[in-house]
Request: fold
Amino acid sequence: MALSMTQIIVFSLLQAALTLNPEDPNVCSHWESYAVTVQESYAHPFDQIYYTRCTDILNWFKCTRHRISYKTAYRRGLRTMYRRRSQCCPGYYENGDFCIPLCTEECVHGRCVSPDTCHCEPGWGGPDCSSGCDSDHWGPHCSNRCQCQNGALCNPITGACVCAAGFRGWRCEELCAPGTHGKGCQLQCQCRHGASCDPRTGECLCAPGYTGVYCEELCPPGSHGAHCELRCPCQNGGTCHHITGECACPPGWTGAVCAQPCPPGTFGQNCSQDCPCHHGGQCDHVTGQCHCTAGYMGDRCQEECPFGTFGFQCSQRCDCHNGGQCSPTTGTCECEPGYKGPRCQERLCPEGLHGPGCTLPCPCDADNTISCHPVTGACTCQPGWSGHHCNESCPAGYYGDGCQLPCTCQNGADCHSITGGCTCAPGFMGEVCAVPCAAGTYGPNCSSVCSCNNGGTCSPVDGSCTCKEGWQGLDCTLPCPSGTWGLNCNENCTCANAAACSPTDGSCSCTPGWLGDTCELPCPDGTFGLNCSERCDCSHADGCDPVTGHCCCLAGWTGIRCDSTCPPGRWGPNCSVSCSCENGGSCSPEDGSCECAPGFRGPLCQRICPPGLYGYSCAQPCPLCVHSSGPCHHVSGICECLPGFSGALCNQASKWQKPVLTPTPILKG
Ligand SMILES: *[C@@H]1O[C@H](CO)[C@@H](O)[C@H](O)[C@H]1NC(C)=O
Ligand SMILES: *[C@@H]1O[C@H](CO)[C@@H](O)[C@H](O)[C@H]1NC(C)=O
Ligand SMILES: *[C@@H]1O[C@H](CO)[C@@H](O)[C@H](O)[C@H]1NC(C)=O
Ligand SMILES: *[C@@H]1O[C@H](CO)[C@@H](O)[C@H](O)[C@H]1NC(C)=O
Ligand SMILES: *[C@@H]1O[C@H](CO)[C@@H](O)[C@H](O)[C@H]1NC(C)=O
Ligand SMILES: *[C@@H]1O[C@H](CO)[C@@H](O)[C@H](O)[C@H]1NC(C)=O
Reply:
């Protein structure tokens, strides 16, 4: 079809596509067809009829013919146009001016970087970055292999290693430095004695020889080595080194396991000491103590057996006679010249002879001699005898065999020349006369009984008495004569005032009323009796009798305790003076002075009161008597009325004549 485009009308279509940046690699372009509505002309065909000659009789040889003819027409049509079209490439979508890749699954921990492609954040993986890295991977998409070792965790993001306890280093490939442990190797090991410390747990791994939580203890006795698991092999009380197990042997033992006693000749710690034993003595391998061979003794076996003994521990007695020497080892006798026999008892010469050929007679006193030397003729005396001829007894102080033994008798005792037995001097007893006679005995063998009396001591020798002070006489039965005292009654008594004197020490026993060492002092005032120890018991007295204690009453007092005044009419010392007061006056017991009865006066109360006064001490004035015979009565002070008057003052006239009162006679003073 032949279109003749006469006019194109473009309708505005998608304007948006035009804003995408063509430079954006994610913008794709394509040709896009689009339809535009146009007014188009076209050759519009139509059927054109015309006539031609033809053989067609019927139509007169005219035939109708058709031909297609065209005319220009216009119509409204759609025209497809093409244009470059920008749009996001497939898999992208527009977002503003940009083309953004589209991930159908949203990238959870990541970014969509291309269609359906997530770029994960480090530590995340999976198509949509939703799964965390496994422990062996890290980084974006968990695409990096973790390098961490020894169980370390790997940071899924950075890949940095988070070491497990006990490790360090970039990749946790190193153990903690010795002495540290734990997370980050931050903890100090507590282990001791060179122990290593488990870097992970801090547990102490003890060096051989140590144990305990901190390896602070040595292996317990009997074990050693690693974990203290090795058994100690040391015998005989040896202790093993806690590390090496090497045995430290106790004294006397040696060898690797202390099983061997010290070699002969050594002893002690490390068998380092030399045995001190002489003469073949064996030494104890532990203590070094010597076990002597026969014939020797002493702590180092340095001494031969003492003379006369032999054998093991010198416990056997030699039996060699006549000067024969006994072997300390075997006890066999080596005889002096002139003797023979196993015990050297056999004289080579007959009895009584000696010398070469046994021709010389022996010079010895036959009774006192044991033997005569067959060669030299020297005499061996019986015990208790001495001298060339054995006719001299032992010198004083010696006795026995050869007079060699010193006497043991004491205190002047005699010693028997043969036996050495003691004959004690008087006053002593006992085997060696060392015991003085017991008190009360004396004489030889202390067999006599003393007869001293009154504490006298008797001489253990002869029984004579030494009297105690105050006694005399052969057997101390006589007391000292009066006036003497002391040893042998040699002192004179010095006691005064009839005091007795102690025969023992001369002390005075004062009689009552006296005092002082020699009883020369009277009792002090107020005391009396023995030792002046009693107090006078008197009321009104000048002390008491120093002997009897009788009170010495003051004047005017009487009674045993001087507590009664003198009886009426008596006064003075011992109330021995009679009173001389008259007219009923009483006298003072002390000085006899008179106290007059009322109405009287004067030293002896012999006068009445002066007129006008009456009563006690004549001290009261009479009342004014009006019609009276005179002043008032000297005793009673009563007015004596004249006849015809009455009343206390005699001033009333009587009705009747009252008889005249006889006046009281006036006593002459
Ligand atoms: C024994 O030997 C050991 C080791 O040689 C030493 O340490 C120790 O001092 C010795 N002891 C004595 C008493 O010699
Ligand atoms: C002992 O005997 C000798 C010789 O017989 C003699 O000379 C001497 O006087 C005597 N001695 C005594 C103390 O008898
Ligand atoms: C002393 O005692 C001894 C032994 O008891 C005896 O033999 C001796 O005759 C006594 N001597 C006197 C003097 O009594
Ligand atoms: C004791 O008195 C007597 C006789 O008066 C006198 O001879 C003697 O010497 C006196 N003795 C003493 C020790 O004073
Ligand atoms: C007297 O005194 C002496 C010495 O002070 C004492 O030993 C004695 O017993 C006394 N006698 C009396 C009766 O108090
Ligand atoms: C008092 O009486 C006593 C005993 O009768 C006598 O010893 C004493 O000398 C008398 N005193 C006077 C001062 O007469």
Residues 530-531, 533 surround 2-acetamido-2-deoxy-beta-D-glucopyranose (ligand 5) (CB under 6 Å). The first strand starts at residue 27 and ends at 53. DSSP finds no helices and 78 strands in the chain. Residues 1-17, 665-669 have pLDDT under 50 and may be disordered.
